[in-house]
Specification:
The protein has 458 residues and is an alpha+beta fold. It folds into 2 domains: 3-196 and 367-456, 3-Layer(aba) Sandwich (Aminopeptidase), CATH 3.40.630; 198-252 and 298-363, Alpha-Beta Plaits (2-Layer Sandwich), CATH 3.30.70. It has 12 helices and 18 strands. It has helices at 3-25, 37-54, 123-138, 159-167, 225-234, 257-263, 270-277, 290-295, 336-349, 375-388, 403-411, 436-456; strands at residues 58-62, 69-74, 82-88, 108-110, 113-115, 145-151, 176-179, 191-196, 198-207, 213-214, 299-307, 317-318, 321-330, 356-365, 368-369, 393-396, 415-417, 433-435. It has a 6-stranded mixed beta sheet, sandwiched between helices. Helix 2 (37-54) runs parallel beside helix 3 (123-138). The model has no long low-confidence stretch (mean pLDDT 97). Bound molecules: ligand BES and manganese (II) ion (2 copies). The site of ligand BES has 17 residues, from strand 14.
Amino acid sequence: MENKEAKAYIEEHQERFLNELLDLLRIPSVSADSKFAGDVRKTAEFVKQKLEEAGVDKAEICETAGFPIVYGEKIIDENLPTILVYGHYDVQPADPYELWDSPPFEPVIKDERIFARGACDDKGQMYMHVKAFEAMAKEGKLACNVKLMIEGEEEVGSENLEIFVKENREKLKSDVILISDTSMIANDTPSVTVGLRGMSYLEVEVTGPNRDLHSGVYGGGVANPINVLCEMIASLRDENKHITIPGFYDNVLELSEEERKELNKSPFDLEQYKKELDIEEVEGEKGFTTLERTGIRPTLDVNGIWGGYIGEGAKTVLPSKAYAKISMRLVPGQDSKRITQLFEDHFKAIAPKSVKVKVTPHHGGEPALTPTDSLSYEAASRAFEESFGKKPIPTRDGGSIPIVALFKQELKVDTVLLGFGLDSDAIHSPNESYGVFNYFKGIETIIGFHKHFAELTK
Ligand code: BES
Ligand code: MN
Ligand code: MN
């Protein structure tokens, strides 16, 4: 489908394209919270119906041990290349609700932006593919065979998708995987993500005395697990913000000076960055820029920490237990299972005898790199050039989409990360939003990708 035709179709149907997305955003498909289990399933049904309306040959709900995977395909010619689209219909919890300016599951459009949980991550971005497919299918202008696989457990680790992929290699056979679930630099500076960080996530429990104690009667004589946990966590990074776990950096693929130079050419305004976050100064590993710290370097962060008395007023208590949830973002070369083990061994080794430590691993995922010298990257580059009037810049994102590495491992297929979000979209935060411009431009660019990929692979 030519760019002119794509634009015309989008223009003609723009109101319905928007309204359908708003309907999708109204269903609170929070995969992490069992309270919403019914809504997550409803969302799967919604997506299936929309795939059918858009013109797939068949759409199905594929049951898993958790939430279902929605699958649809249209095979027009065995000799044409096949694009496998992946996206997710589940969203992060909307908490804390009181920080939203409008309710998270009652989408509103304000200042040309769609505000709702999932607006960008990933309902808005996933739905662009459904509408791009509709435009091409209805006009009889499909350039490639299309398979769409939309899952409902991305935000909780994609464990069942992993099983599904391993059991359905033939069904998922494709020439390229296309995902819109990342961000670009700015609306006038398009970019293609070529690297994602991986993740190791775990929970720690530190136990001191066998019951909560009076902090006057026992204080000073018995280890306070919260104090101990804080000391242990503080020791995990040194004064250069280098992670102290032995072996942590062992296999990290360092970038060459040339590659670092290239990466730091990306437009980035440190003053603007600090202003937007209302911080006086940034922080991070010594010797690296902010772009490097968030893109190509591994990290260790506490995501939550609790214990003791946090109710109203003061209670003098020396608690029995303290907890923390800790994540490590990993970079190419690192292996999430190995890092999890290294953390567990180290954390136990540094625990004083006065406490007991329990470490429970959660989901993890491997980092990924996607090639820039492939036909699929070239197709993305041409599609952006056509729709945005500019060639995209290759960038490394700090977020994680563990399934990308798994696709490569199991299906031997490379992914193109065609993301249209912006860092300021506030994904996972209150007041998440997605630009109306990004939604429609995304649809246009995706249609362009199909065309250029078919041409390039002829
Ligand atoms: N879409 C995000 C990942 C992302 C966001 C990549 C922005 C690049 C730029 C995805 O939905 C996500 O949130 N992933 C989780 C990991 C998952 C295992 C829970 C993450 O990165 O925290
Ligand atoms: Mn996502
Ligand atoms: Mn997410």
